[in-house]
Amino acid sequence: MTASTSSFESMQYGAPIGEYRGSVGRIVIGVAGVALVLIGAFFAVVATTPSAAAGDSSGAIADIIASAIFIIGAIACFVTVFVWRGARAQLFERGFVIGRAGKTTSARWEDIASVTQRVVQTRYYGIPVWTSHTYNVTLTNGEKLRITDAFGKVGKLGDSIQRMSANALLPRAIAAFHSGARLPFGALTVSQAGISNGKETLPWSDLNQLTLLNGRVIITRKGKRLRWSATQISKTPNVYVLTALVGYIQRGVR
């Protein structure tokens, strides 16, 4: 399930539904690393010139510190470029093949145990300038995959992985619910008694709505304006399964 897999072998997963290659951000980061090296070298030269040595020593020390900071930043950029190398994801009807940094993993959608997402938007004076994505995938055999901005269109890739895995996992979740099992989704737990946040259980008859908003799972109670619970999506595994399962249960309650 997790061996190096060729394109021919990957056809066992059915028709292709998407392919995602490495992000152009890798090139940008590489260029930034070169620029940081040049800036660091400039400060190092300034700090070691005879005029600087003969002048105020504090100025030379500041230049050396500045040089070190820029060089460290350059090293971080080059490490990122190295780690992001060879990023490629192929999605199929029945599974996926994902490779990065010389390692390739393949699995069927039902082999996924959990998916968590973390999307962080950086703003400058209120203007969005960068959005970082991280999707952590855990397989049933314990292997873990980390999907980051190394992949182009990573937001679409992560959404597709969550949607396809949810399609495979939802029938099992519904069967477990009907059997009387308690299904954990991070801080939230779904059972026949209702949905619990660890402190109290909200009966299904009192549940108004479960929505995903601003990075949180928002749950509201019927007849109440204030939200009953707000849990971070980044700490809620299989959030797509959770929303689909709650929708299924609510339709049954009605």
Characterise the protein shown here.
The protein has 254 residues and is an alpha+beta fold. The protein has three domains: 101 residues, Roll (PH-domain like); 58 residues; 74 residues. It contains six helices and 14 strands. The strands form four sheets. Strands 1-2-3-4 form a four-stranded antiparallel β-sheet, covered by helices on one side. It has a four-stranded antiparallel β-sheet with strand order 8-9-10-11, with helices on one face. A three-stranded antiparallel β-sheet has the order 5-6-7, with helices on one face. Strand 8 and strand 9 form a beta hairpin. Helix 2 runs antiparallel to helix 4. The protein is elongated and about 80 Å long.
Short description:
This protein is about 40% helix and about 35% strand. It is of the alpha+beta class and about 250 residues long. A hairpin with a 4-residue loop joins strand 6 and strand 7.
Mean pLDDT: 88
Measured by DSSP, the beta-strand proportion falls in: 25-35%
Helix content: 25-40%
Overall radius of gyration: 24 Å
DSSP strand tally? 14
Instruction: Note the overall shape.
Output: elongated
Counted up, domains total: 3
Structural class: alpha+beta
Order of helices and strands: HEHHHEEEEEEHEEEEEEEH
Mind telling me the CATH class of the largest domain?
Answer: Mainly Beta
Strand line-up across the major sheet: 1-2-3-4
Contiguous helical run count: 6
**Main sheet: strands, sense, barrel:** 4 strands, antiparallel
Question: Uncertain runs with pLDDT below 50, 5 residues or more?
Answer: 1-6
**N/C terminus separation:** 41 Å
Looking at CATH, which topology of the largest domain would you report?
PH-domain like
CATH architecture of the largest domain: Roll
